[in-house]
Amino acid sequence: MVEAGMETSRSNDPCTPSPTACDVVTVPTRQGLEAVDILRRGAAGDGVGPVLLDDGCDTLGFLVPPGTAAAWDVPGSTCTETDGRGLSFPPQPSVEGSDWLVPPGEADPATDPAVLRRALGEAARLLRAADNCR
Fold first, then answer.
1. CB-based contacts of 105: which residues, under 8 Å, 6+ apart?
2. Is the dihedral of CA 125, 101, 27, 70 positive or negative?
């Protein structure tokens, strides 16, 4: 289900290699890695944009189109409006203590928020099922 006001297409003002603004969805690393795998296996057109991994390997940050934060409500994640602060697309991310898991140039310009929402939900279900099998 798509929330009102949620951007649903990468063509609706995605981040570009020189963004003026870009939002970042932050999730726990384990769920984020599952979501990256799900996105990479997805249907044609369901791609993953650049993804940051923090230095402590605690969280992943998915770059999403600006405006996503206004309607983001996925439990266990946060979406932050950046207004372009500290974001650039050089080989090394400008966010101190992080590195690219999915670098720009190897990814779509930004991850579609609706597609990311579905992937995070599927990742959470897979992780719960795996944890219950222990």
1. 89
2. negative
More confident residue, 113 or 21: 113
Residue 89, pLDDT > 80, answer no
Q: What per-residue confidence (pLDDT) applies to 58?
A: 92
Cα separation values, 114 from 18, 68, 90, 100, 127, Å: 23, 10, 27, 22, 20
CB 50 within 8 A of CB 99: no
The CA–CA distances, whole Å, from 89 to 19, 122, 129 equal 9, 29, 36
Three-state DSSP class for 100? strand
